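Annex B. Sample input.
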Amino acid sequence: MKVLVIGSGGREHAIAWKLAQSDRVEQVFVYPGNGGTAQEEKCQNVRLNAGNPDDPTSFSPLARWASAHAIDLTVVGPEAPLAAGIVDYFRSQGLAIVGPTQRAAQLEASKAFAKEFMNRYGVRTAKSWTTTVYDEAQEIARAHFSASPSRPLVIKADGLAAGKGVVIAQSMEEAKTTIESFMRQGALGAAGKTLVIEEFLPGKEVSVLAAVSVQKGKATPPVILPFKSARDHKRRYEGAQGPNTGGMGAIAPVDDFSPAAEKDFLEHILQPTLRGMVAEDFYYRGFIFFGLMVYQDTCYLLEYNVRLGDPETQAVLPLMDSDFASLCTAIEQGSLASFELRWKKGYVCAPVAVAEGYPGSYRKGDPIHIEWSALKAVGARLFVAGARQQEMGENSTERSPSLVTSGGRVLAVSAWGASLEEAQKKAYDAIKAVSFTGMGYRRDIGSET
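Annex B, continued. Sample output.
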């Protein structure tokens, strides 16, 4: 089969790599892809003259390309094309695609919609207030800090904000500044015009990725099939210090996500979510991400993502022992309920290397030097996110074409170990084999919780 993967990040590199491992897959096309997917076995990047994959006006030429190249299945990586309705469009053209429809994608595209969904169907979550009025938002913050001056307040932009739409305000002054920035200064554009303000929950964050198959009128039962647990590390610096980022690394599985916590998650988060999807008559054949806060084995849902997480995917997929192409086919064809999901034993640690200045303004265009033999010695893999190809001169000792930085999160180094400690050691031995000007990374992925 021929598969098209949509996206250009490290998650999409991991998805393409995992699909290419399948004996069922002849070729994987990635649109638009990156420097890593361009070099991956059985993979080829796709370039189109029209637009970009997040723009609905690009769906028509992309669908025509998929039809012309006899693509058997399309897998969508990022949230923006899902929120823009790519699944609806591809299905209207008779093309098989993995992902939720535009209406179902509101679970991520609108935090207000997601909160209403959670409350309507009994998904355990934090108490919250939703407002479109600036003065009301400020009053909610004042009332909170008057009653609980030492307790933080979580302020979320309603719409998609590329990981920049959540602030944990530690004081009234910080809350006031955040509300001003989002609602009046337009720091996040339309995404920040509506705010969801939440109580702060103590505990440890856990990510659970899952496959979903829900469609009204099908004989096969609706199902959400959870993957191994994972943990993303959002803060830029060691010890969870510094600004939030798109993710500085991940581990899988998470030992402190106990059997009791998992049971609580299934009962109070996953099952009511599934009931809600059925009640809302969602067409949802794709992936979902549960962002959890876990305290004393009790789970609260922080957010839904309607796709696989990044960088969690780079830690979870290397542990999957099932054929990923077969899983995607089962999702799309509605046979997920009978799919056997198998996992390798052990752990994966995947620290992320970032460009100087990230998550603010960052360097671009720096050559990436890689000691491939050192990576091979520990069995580590590179999943490229923000890097493009660049042809090297005749006398270069690098692999040709080489890679140069093009994004803030440049790549993840993913390593397996029988224990978490072994996985960490291998990952950090391997990341020393990668270098570029200004490169930074956290040295405590998997240790700081």
